[in-house]
Amino acid sequence: MTELPFTADHLLDAATLTAAGLHSHDLERLVRSGRLHPLVGGWYATRPPDGPGDRHGLTARALARHFAGRAGVSHHSRLVVAGLPTWRADLSIVALTRRDDRGSRSRRGYRVFPSVPGLVMADTAAGPAVPLGAAIVQTGLLNGRMDALVAADAALFRSLVTPDELVPAVGLFCGARGIGPGRALLRHADGRHESPGETRTSHALRSLGLAHTPQVLVTTAQGTKRVDALLDDAPAVVEFDGRVKYDGPAPERVRTDPLFAEKRREDAIRDELYEVVWVVWAELDDLTALGRRIRAARDRAVARVA
């Protein structure tokens, strides 16, 4: 069996493999046998990627090594390697930003963006990379404002960035097309949102003019229950999806049987005279219908406690 050079990060490039005495036909054989997995531009993974996100992360790390400090992982790719969620980003394309020059480049599988004045690259386990705050703003400019908000909420929730770090990050892109709406939306970034679905649900409630507070503790006969959002003007709870829910402080949550626990949890909340509205992904694209449902629940809740 052909012995591959040792690599701690599961990445090898064609130059290293050639220096180890392997030829093109050897590489083709190793790919066919599943011992090498092509990524981009002569780079291979020595293990099979575990889905599109993992492939993207491996490719981003490979390209960071390929550019040898001249460019850093950026935009949605920086989020992926940090383990943060993306929303509509194209994971078939890795994004990098140049450290110094203003040139750009697009190749199959990756895109290199010009340097950003005032931006200082960070040294990470994946190699040179744009700081997370700046990458959040970048992904909003490239992929849409909701991508930025989803990532910002997740980064705040995990304490990977602070609100104070997001403000100067936005300032780096002053004058960029779309930065105004992006800045406005990022003002709502909130680390209490624990998933992209909760981020989008909260955004939908704001768009509907429904004031609410996220992650509220509700006292019930079965103990304290944490809800995704509680309307400020009525005992009406809004929950995203609802297939799995956890009780207790976020770091200490214990998963239980989803269906049984969810039903008991909802019953306990309703017993305290709260209305409960479940929101699923499809409803977030029809705010008119969603607004009718939530306002009807709010009216029932007000009437019940009157």
From TrEMBL:
Source organism of the structure: Terracoccus luteus
Domain of life: Bacteria
Name listed for the protein in its UniProt record: Uncharacterized protein
